[in-house]
User: Which sequence fits this backbone?
DNA sequence: AGGTCAACCTGAGCGC
DNA sequence: TGCGCTCAGGTTGACC
């Protein structure tokens, strides 16, 4: 998935095509993704003006003039195309999609705007989702209600994080992946953050000292901010014709670098990969303690 | 209550 | 060429 920076990149890519614009028609090619689509989704979207596109954690919310909001989650493989162009290519482009008009395999929802832009939601693995909710009750939606603070927001600070990690015996990596504690981090950025703070991902969260917890805050903010500025991360070696793909993968220091030398000056370590709760962790055994 | 793990899916890449 | 296996950026719900 796309993690927070990739979702923010997608949101920004959708803004020129959608914000302030009217939805002319909607084609829904299957009844569900991860969950069933909301009742009469196409009808409830058609004719609506999109007032604002915003992001909460890894979710995109399109606030409509009707008082409803379209909630979108990209799952692991969800992609958005604007008139055939992929936004923030965090997933390898496949098949005949490059610049070709649709439809293509896994184009599940197609939204035509009155301005002529065509928004396509393509998701091979179908872990993504869409829902409609009352805009004024968005915070109570089941997918949003339990989310922790935005890592780039004002309420996320050392005091909060220390309290959230207190008493947690889970590995610090699992804790930082827990969206109830902090919303928006995923496997890549947690690996990068723990490497850059010199913390062993296996350490029980509660055993981190106050200094380590405090050190996490600016590193989390910096990594996410830099990744957003780079347009997110692109896996595989996909390059988009219009240059819209992200570039933060060039700044990965541990993710995907198993067997390669540690990049910390003076460290002779070799990056290792091991599994934590079923997911790959990349770390330097020498400088993460 | 907190922590761990399987499950949900398709596709790419690898070794044989 | 093809088969079987592993892996993939997320999240939920069942089970200790």
Assistant:
């Amino acid at each position: 998935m796309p993690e927070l920076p990739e979702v923010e990149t997608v949101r920004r890519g959708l803004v020129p095509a959608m914000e302030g614009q009217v939805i002319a028609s909607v084609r829904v090619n299957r009844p569900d993704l991860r969950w069933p689509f909301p009742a009469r989704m196409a009808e409830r979207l058609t004719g609506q003006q999109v007032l604002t596109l915003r992001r909460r954690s890894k979710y995109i919310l399109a606030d409509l003039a009707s008082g409803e909001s379209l909630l979108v989650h990209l799952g692991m493989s969800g992609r958005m195309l604007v008139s055939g162009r992929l936004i923030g290519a965090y997933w390898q482009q496949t098949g005949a999609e490059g610049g070709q008009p649709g439809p293509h395999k896994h184009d599940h929802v197609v939204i035509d705007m009155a301005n002529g832009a065509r928004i396509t939601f393509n998701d091979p693995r179908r872990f993504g989702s869409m829902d409609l909710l009352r805009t004024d009750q968005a915070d109570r939606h089941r997918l949003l209600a339990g989310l922790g603070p935005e890592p780039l927001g004002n309420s996320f600070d050392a005091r909060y994080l220390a309290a959230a990690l207190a008493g947690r015996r889970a590995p610090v990596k699992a804790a930082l992946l827990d969206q109830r504690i902090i919303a928006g981090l995923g496997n890549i950025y947690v690996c990068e953050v723990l490497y850059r703070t010199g913390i062993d991902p296996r350490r029980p969260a509660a055993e981190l000292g106050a200094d380590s917890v405090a050190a996490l805050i600016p590193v989390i903010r910096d990594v996410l901010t830099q990744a957003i500025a780079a347009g997110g991360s692109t896996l595989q070696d996909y390059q988009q014709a219009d240059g819209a793909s992200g570039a933060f993968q060039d700044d990965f220091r541990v993710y995907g670098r198993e067997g390669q030398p540690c990049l910390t000056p003076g460290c002779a370590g070799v990056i290792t990969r091991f599994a934590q709760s079923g997911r790959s962790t990349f770390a330097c055994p020498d400088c993460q303690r």
Observations:
- The two ends of chain A are 28 Å apart (CA to CA).
- Chain A has two domains: 4-140, 158-283.
- The first strand of chain A starts at residue 23 and ends at 28.
- Residues 4-140 of chain A form a domain with the N-terminal domain of MutM-like DNA repair proteins fold (CATH 3.20.190.10).
